[in-house]
């Protein structure tokens, strides 16, 4: 007795079955589950039609995989491929077991080889779809990482500009107040002195920021290098 399942329908958890048995007269008989329940069918035609249905579904999924251009589309292809792959593996197991128990039955050999080819086709589709999905996710992550890097560089440039001009702004604001400080009658030398002092302080702050960024980057690189060395030492 063999219990095979028809092609899974997306969104439907139930699986329709085909029952086959070989009585002592060696004539295969079968019952196929349809809308009105189990009905007798020709066993050989039922198995061949079942395999043709699986191949047609695989061809359809391969066409959708070839047209998929986004991670979402690849995910839908992969999600519909998994039940087909599982059903084919569950079909191949009983056929193989039956072939081992009845090695002289020619129909079992033919059905098993056909099922093996179909199972291999859907397995390759699954592996390709999964690899394509992983690559698409990694590629999008790389693009996002590059965008974050560009934003970090732009932010660093803005911080550098702020660091240079912040002391000048603070000094200009302090001396622009209408407060008697006793320096109102000073000559032009005071202006140029304060301007030079502000520039020096600004570039000092910028140098401090650059050194901090380089130090953090160096520590990160050293830590990554140490972890890679540990993984290589463990053979990973």
What this model shows, in words?
- This protein has 236 residues and is α+β, with helices and mostly antiparallel strands.
- The protein has 4 helices and 4 strands, in the order E-E-E-E-H-H-H-H.
- The protein has a 4-stranded antiparallel sheet.
- Strand 2 and strand 3 (29-34) form a beta hairpin.
- The mean pLDDT is 79.
Please describe the biggest sheet, giving its number of strands, its sense, and whether it closes into a barrel: 4 strands, antiparallel
Inertia-based shape: rod-shaped
Global Rg: 37 Å
Distance between the termini: 47 Å
Mean pLDDT: 79
Strand content: 5-15%
List keywords for this structure.
8% strand, 4 helices, 4 strands, 236 residues, four-stranded antiparallel beta sheet, rod-shaped, alpha+beta
List the helices and strands and how they pair.
Layout: E1 2-5, E2 17-21, E3 29-34, E4 37-41, H1 43-67, H2 71-101, H3 106-175, H4 188-233
Helix pairs in contact: 1-2, 1-3, 2-3, 3-4
């Amino acid at each position: 007795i063999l219990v095979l399942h028809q092609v899974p329908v997306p969104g439907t958890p139930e699986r329709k079955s085909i029952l086959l048995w070989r009585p002592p007269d060696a004539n295969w008989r079968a019952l196929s589950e349809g809308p009105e329940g189990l009905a007798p069918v020709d066993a050989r035609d039922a198995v061949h039609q079942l395999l043709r249905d699986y191949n047609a579904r695989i061809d359809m999924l391969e066409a959708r995989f070839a047209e998929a251009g986004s991670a979402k589309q690849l995910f839908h292809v992969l999600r519909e491929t998994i039940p087909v792959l599982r059903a084919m593996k569950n079909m191949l197991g009983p056929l193989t077991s039956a072939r081992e128990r009845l090695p002289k039955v020619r129909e079992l050999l033919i059905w098993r080889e056909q099922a093996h080819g179909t199972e291999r086709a859907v397995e390759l589709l699954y592996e390709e779809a999964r690899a394509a999905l992983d690559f698409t996710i990694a590629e999008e992550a790389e693009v996002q990482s590059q965008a974050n890097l560009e934003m970090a560089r732009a932010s660093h440039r803005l911080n550098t500009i702020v660091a240079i001009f912040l002391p000048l702004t603070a000094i200009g604001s302090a001396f622009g107040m209408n407060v008697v400080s006793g320096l109102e009658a000073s000559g032009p030398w005071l202006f140029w002195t304060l301007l030079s002092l502000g520039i020096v302080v600004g570039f000092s702050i910028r140098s401090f920021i650059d050194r901090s960024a380089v130090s953090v980057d160096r520590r990160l690189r050293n830590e990554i290098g140490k972890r890679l060395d540990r993984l290589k030492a463990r053979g990973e």
